[in-house]
User: Which sequence fits this backbone?
């Protein structure tokens, strides 16, 4: 998929079945690069390389 | 009604006041100011006054259920109560939700003799910003009604600050107890994740949500936490371990305690210049109370803040996607935009956020090997103007989400004002399950300062009367 927010954001929203207004989509597109950059920084955390996630699952409900 | 819970409990037992008088006084403030402040979604006058009368009878008969007996408290309207529907301040939530009756936390307060006065405003589903086009009150700050009181536990924050009740329950997923606490000049505690059961509360971020106390003082929060803490198997995240005696630990001394301070002044573009001086004055009081204060630097500050925002978005999106698809317009604009961020986050991103949390826990535990507590500002600035409110601007100012990623107990206490007269808060953080140390530090600080006793001018006329 393209990294272009004007392509990615509408595609993900459509795939999710969401139908925001054009104005709302424009806001999400504008905010996307900073958020994507912040998320990318999570993948750069060396200390997390071999960590287990903070997700708890027990076999008994 | 401007008493602390602790003072009111003493006044009830000395015969200086009654629970009915306290409850009526709070409702009188609400009659005068709720239209301007937007605190209540629903009042329970009849049942509250009946409960207050019963508390008066019991206390007169020598039946004493503890420090909350006869104390009027409000409940954020995402927590279920016996009195009826919970709305989450939303048109979307099925009104059948919450018919299980009191959430465990409310049942515990009621069993301790507390008087439940009503359900309080929130950000819709505890996320977003107020939408004036929806049929709900817009909460405002009693220190300046052009400004936001913080959220999402807005009604608990501005209601306590205005004197409509003596304390209440809020919830905190990224700072929603501590943000209104700092914005309204009151005290609010997000205790350790799992310490208080969250069954009976509408979820936002399953692995970040906390229900916690908001009141005028740390001692009041200690009294409330002592009642609401404890295991409940209906919450999968609830932790089964003994509850400390938080109240008896409030000695007023911080002798032997080592406190790390990270001013976080450069962590936000919204930091006001006066924050440095206000924080320095606050830490000087901690030193004067006997603590050794040392500089620290919080590790992975931006990454752990992001981990909370990514996790909250993903987890709330999982809860809301179906309704977002079919009822987009019924959501407030700020809420639907904030939750939809979850559609832009991958499954891998969410899991990576959970791995960063684990790494961060270990790094911060190393920090806590050298200090007993850490303090920071709760927020970089005072509460924003409602007209200029954006969700991203709120998050950009807060120093709270970091601790939701980690789960440590964190409390905000008032520490002064901006140059514009808006309250600022000191955030006190402890090791996991060491709420006692957090509360003890907050109490010691409040014995040496009087910020927590200040009353907003708009309601001080009622105090004089």
Assistant:
């Amino acid at each position: 998929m393209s990294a272009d927010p004007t392509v990615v954001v509408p595609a993900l929203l459509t795939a999710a079945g969401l139908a925001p207004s054009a104005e709302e989509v424009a806001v999400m597109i504008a905010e996307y690069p900073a958020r994507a950059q912040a998320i990318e920084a999570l993948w750069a955390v060396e200390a997390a390389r071999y960590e287990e996630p903070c997700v708890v699952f027990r076999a008994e409900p | 009604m401007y008493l602390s819970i602790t003072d009111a409990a003493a006044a009830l037992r000395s015969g200086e006041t009654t629970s009915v008088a306290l409850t009526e006084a709070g409702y009188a403030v609400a009659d005068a100011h709720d239209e301007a402040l937007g605190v209540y979604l629903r009042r329970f006058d009849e049942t509250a006054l009946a409960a207050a009368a019963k508390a008066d009878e019991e206390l007169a008969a020598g039946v004493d259920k503890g420090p909350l007996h006869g104390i009027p408290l409000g409940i954020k309207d995402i927590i279920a109560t016996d009195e009826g529907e919970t709305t989450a301040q939303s048109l979307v939530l099925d009104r059948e939700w919450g018919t299980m009756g009191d959430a465990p936390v409310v049942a515990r307060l009621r069993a301790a003799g507390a008087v439940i006065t009503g359900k309080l405003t929130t950000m819709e589903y505890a996320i977003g910003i107020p939408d004036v086009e929806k049929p709900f009150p817009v909460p405002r700050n009693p220190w300046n009604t052009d400004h936001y009181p913080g959220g999402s536990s807005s009604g608990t924050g501005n209601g306590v600050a205005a004197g409509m009740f003596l304390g209440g329950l809020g919830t905190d997923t990224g700072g929603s107890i501590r943000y209104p606490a700092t914005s309204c000049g009151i005290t609010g505690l997000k205790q350790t994740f799992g310490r208080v059961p969250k069954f009976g509360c509408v979820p936002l971020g399953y692995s970040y949500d906390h229900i916690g106390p908001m009141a005028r003082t740390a001692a009041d929060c200690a009294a409330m936490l002592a009642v609401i803490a404890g295991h409940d198997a209906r919450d999968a995240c609830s932790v089964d371990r003994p509850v400390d005696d938080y109240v008896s630990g409030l000695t007023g001394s911080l002798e032997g305690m080592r406190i790390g301070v990270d001013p976080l002044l450069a962590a936000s573009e919204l930091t006001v210049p006066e924050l440095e001086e206000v924080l320095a004055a606050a830490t000087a009081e901690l030193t004067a109370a006997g603590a050794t204060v040392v500089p620290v630097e919080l590790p992975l500050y931006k990454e752990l803040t992001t981990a909370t925002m990514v996790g909250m978005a993903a987890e709330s999106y999982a809860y809301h996607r179906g309704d977002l698809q079919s009822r987009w317009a019924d959501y407030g604009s700020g809420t639907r935009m904030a939750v939809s961020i979850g559609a832009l986050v991958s499954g891998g991103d969410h899991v990576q956020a959970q791995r960063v949390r684990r790494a961060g826990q270990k790094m911060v535990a190393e920090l806590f090997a050298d200090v007993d507590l850490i303090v920071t500002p709760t927020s970089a600035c005072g509460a924003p103007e409602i007209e200029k409110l954006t969700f991203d601007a709120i998050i950009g100012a807060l120093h709270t989400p970091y601790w939701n990623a980690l789960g440590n107990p964190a409390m905000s206490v008032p520490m002064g004002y901006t140059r514009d007269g808006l309250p600022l808060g000191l955030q006190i953080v402890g090791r996991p399950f060491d709420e006692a140390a957090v509360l003890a530090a907050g109490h010691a600080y409040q014995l040496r300062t009087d910020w927590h006793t200040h009353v907003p001018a708009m309601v001080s006329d009622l105090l004089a009367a």
Observations:
- The mean pLDDT of chain A is 93.
- The CA atoms of residues 4 and 61 of chain A lie 43 Å apart.
